[in-house]
Amino acid sequence: DSVDTIPVYFEGAISDVDSDNYQLTVINEKGETKKVDIQNSTKTSVATTDGDLAKSGFSKLSVNERVLAIGFWDKKDKNLLSTLRIIHFKDVPPSKEMQSHINVASSSAK
User: At residue 96, what are phi and psi to the nearest 5 degrees?
Assistant: First the structure.
């Protein structure tokens, strides 16, 4: 099935970091929330101000950072993205739409 072999991407802002399971909760501009599963083989990079990618890691990912996750949807859980690569953008803030959804999500979680 070719659908399973084409990587997908999900862009949004981190609304939660689950350090125990190495997962992020990412919310996009439409308010759609997906879990992003960081694997041992996931390449994690940070976009630098001059447009290059520098090596990064899970511990460097923070709530309210914009990320681009690339990978495959989990066969059992369609809201879980098993990532091949994740790029986070420390110098590009989340859009106002992403930010508004993060604020709603974090206030409802309390």
Answer: -60, -35
Q: Are 45 and 87 in contact (CB under 8 A)?
A: yes
Question: pTM for the complete prediction?
Answer: 0.87
Q: How far is it between the farthest Cα atoms of the chain?
A: 42
Closest CA to 14 of 41, 44, 54: 44
Contact assessment for residue 80 and residue 18, using Cβ atoms and an 8 Å cutoff: no
Q: What is d(CA 44, CA 105) in angstroms, rounded to the nearest whole number?
A: 25
Q: What is the pLDDT of residues 88-98, one digit of tens each?
A: 998 888 889 88
Q: Contact at 8 Å (CB) between 105 and 13? A: no
> Where do the H-state alpha helices sit in 1-110?
96-108
